[in-house]
Design goal:
With about 550 residues, this protein is α/β, with parallel strands linked by helices. Helices cover about 25% and strands about 35% of the residues. It contains twelve helices and 25 strands. The chain has helices at about 145-160, 205-210, 225-230, 240-250, 270-275, 275-295, 315-320, 325-335, 360-370, 395-405, 425-435, 470-480; strands at about 30-35, 40-45, 55-60, 65-75, 80-85, 90-100, 105-115, 120-125, 130-145, 160-170, 180-190, 195, 215-220, 255-260, 300-305, 340-345, 380-385, 385, 410-415, 440-445, 490, 495-500, 505-510, 520-525, 535-539. An eight-stranded parallel barrel has the order 12-13-14-15-16-17-19-20, surrounded by five helices. A five-stranded antiparallel sheet has the order 1-2-9-4-7. A four-stranded antiparallel sheet has the order 3-8-5-6. The longest helix has 19 residues, at about 275-295. Belongs to the glycosyl hydrolase 10 (cellulase F) family. Keywords: Carbohydrate metabolism, Hydrolase, Polysaccharide degradation, Repeat. One of its GO terms (biological process) is polysaccharide catabolic process.
Length: about 550
């Protein structure tokens, strides 16, 4: 395909004039070849590993986001290929990664942020001794204001709000009621936003009040996991997660099921590690049926089925390469209506973890989809989102764009940002980027309160007074719940248009002809629109 943004700041991005504007590094043999259709591309090979391509020197601007894309192929087999930007201050920044193959082109999407000005270089490198083919390279700059404007106006504004028509008519004869006053009061926000929850909430009213007044979704940090409910073989104890779920339900907080299994060897109980394949299958079947039957059928809103199965492979090593797809199949048979998530870290956070890059995430999800009997499963994408001290926001957006091609619900499931001088600012950037992406359907932070300290990021002190990151969270919650408070008046046809953030509302209608106000509950979501989904209110 042609380069995005016509190549941006990259010159000769399609190599139509040879290697003009590109530099061949020492030790690299490079040329421009043509396909049978006449398409030109650069081919580069390095003596030894990693193989490296030609590079282009570009003028890097300060305080600028850069969106990167290119098409890649390798001469034989497959290879992990990374896009690298050498910044003006001498750092080598990974801007994206993908699995490149021989015989077909693969797209790489990513990006990076520059905080300094000067000359930089863009190139690609592989982890195998192969020739790398490169074509349609693009590096497009955006000022921070341009990036924010796109996110706020074109993405968040369209994805999280709807304008719908409300028709007010008399209940007796259906005649329209002009000049009626219509107001809307938000009862519950539509976009799911939550936080991790710990067992301490059961004995701490201040923790309970703080959590329930802010969040609509919870994930139990550890309490629903296998090692928490069956620490000794055959001795199940669900009292703690039962009590936590009951507390959440009292407050209308929905809970994600975390998790059925965890593929990490280090999290397995000694008695599980000691089991042979047949014994393990039996123990897993008992665990799966126990937890999914107990909390399925609508009590939880999603299941993390085999947690982190790109990084770890305990069940695959014990039971074979189709262990994960088979587990999804079993969970789906018991609870076919609840979305089944593939929950993973370092897919959206940064591009240097080759185990979890977006192309490998897509391949694993397709393996689960293609397993016999899994065609009808309600699958979903779970991205943990444990960011370092300086999140790569352009890479985050590019990865979300890539995973959106799966056409599955996407949640950011365990958001936190490592401590640093600008932690609150960077958390706000991450949350705004997630909320602003039209394919993100929910977000949960990993900032559970503990008396002994938080995992990475604390929102409050021990008295539940906000820290700086907590102020950011409260600010965004208030902003995302905002809707016009001014009353609107129906026209001659009894119609009024309301622009509302998605959620559940009490809509109140007043008119001199009414003895008392009429109040109706109204749900506004992505399917609501003024032209297709007018709401009739009979008074």
């Amino acid at each position: 395909m042609i380069p995005l943004y016509s190549g941006g700041v990259i010159k000769n991005s399609e190599f139509n004039v040879g290697l003009t504007d590109w530099t061949v590094p020492l030790g690299v043999q490079a040329t421009v070849n043509s396909s049978s259709s006449g398409n030109k591309f650069a081919e580069a090979r390095t003596d030894g590993q990693p193989s490296r391509t030609v590079y282009q020197t570009v003028q890097i601007q300060p305080n600028t986001h850069y969106s990167l894309s290119a098409w890649l192929q390798v001469s034989a087999g497959t290879a992990n290929v990374m896009a690298v930007v050498r910044t003006p201050d001498g750092q080598f920044v990974a801007a994206g990664a993908t699995v490149a193959k021989s015989g077909c082109w693969s797209m790489i999407k990513g990006g990076m942020t520059s905080y300094s000005s000067g000359q930089g270089q863009l190139y690609f490198e592989a982890d195998a001794a192969v020739a790398i083919w490169v074509d349609s390279v693009s590096l497009q700059p955006f000022t921070f204001d341009e990036w924010d404007a796109h996110r706020q106006q074109q993405s968040a504004g369209r994805a999280r709000r709807s304008t719908l028509g409300v028709v007010v008519a008399r209940g007796t004869d259906g005649a329209p009621v002009p000049n009626a006053t219509v107001t809307a009061e938000l009862l519950r926000p539509g976009f799911p936003f939550g936080n991790a929850m710990t067992r301490e909430i059961l004995d701490n009213p201040a923790y309970e009040q703080w959590f329930a007044s802010r969040f609509t979704v919870a994930t139990f940090e550890n309490e629903m996991k296998w090692y928490a409910t069956e620490g000794r073989q055959g001795h199940e104890d669900y009292r703690v997660p039962d009590a936590m779920l009951a507390l959440a339900e009292r407050h209308g907080v929905r809970v994600r099921g975390h998790n059925v299994f965890w593929d990490d060897q280090s999290t397995q109980m000694a008695w599980v590690r000691s089991l042979g394949p047949d014994e393990l299958r039996a123990a897993m079947d008992k665990r799966l049926r126990s937890v999914v039957s107990r909390y399925g059928g609508g009590r939880v809103i999603g299941w993390d089925v085999v947690n982190e199965n790109l990084h770890w492979s305990f069940y695959e090593r014990k039971l074979g390469p189709d262990a994960s797809p088979a587990i999804y199949h079993q969970v789906g048979k018991i609870d076919g209506e609840t979305p089944l998530f593939m929950n993973e870290f370092n897919t959206v956070e940064q591009p240097v973890d080759m185990a979890a890059m977006a192309s490998k995430y897509v391949a694993k999800m397709n393996q689960i989809r293609s397993f016999p009997g899994n065609g009808g499963l309600k699958l979903a994408v779970g991205l943990e989102s444990h960011f370092g001290a300086t999140p790569n926001i352009p890479f985050m957006r590019a990865t979300l764009d890539t995973l959106a091609q799966l056409k599955l619900p996407i949640w950011l499931t365990e958001i936190d940002v490592a401590n640093g001088t600008n932690q609150a600012q960077h958390l706000e950037e991450v949350l705004r980027e997630g909320y602003g992406h039209p394919n993100v359907d929910g977000m949960v932070m990993w900032a559970a309160w503990h008396a002994t300290g938080c995992y990475v990021m604390c929102l409050t002190d021990d008295e539940f007074r906000n820290l700086a990151v907590g102020d950011v969270v409260d600010k965004l919650i208030a902003e995302w719940r905002t809707h016009p408070v001014a009353a609107a008046t129906t026209d001659a046809d009894g119609v009024v248009e309301l622009d509302l953030a998605h959620g559940e509302y009490n809509v109140t209608v007043t008119h001199p002809s009414l003895v008392s106000s009429a109040v109706r509950t109204l749900t506004v979501d992505a399917s609501s629109s003024s032209s297709e989904n007018a709401i009739d209110i009979r008074v």
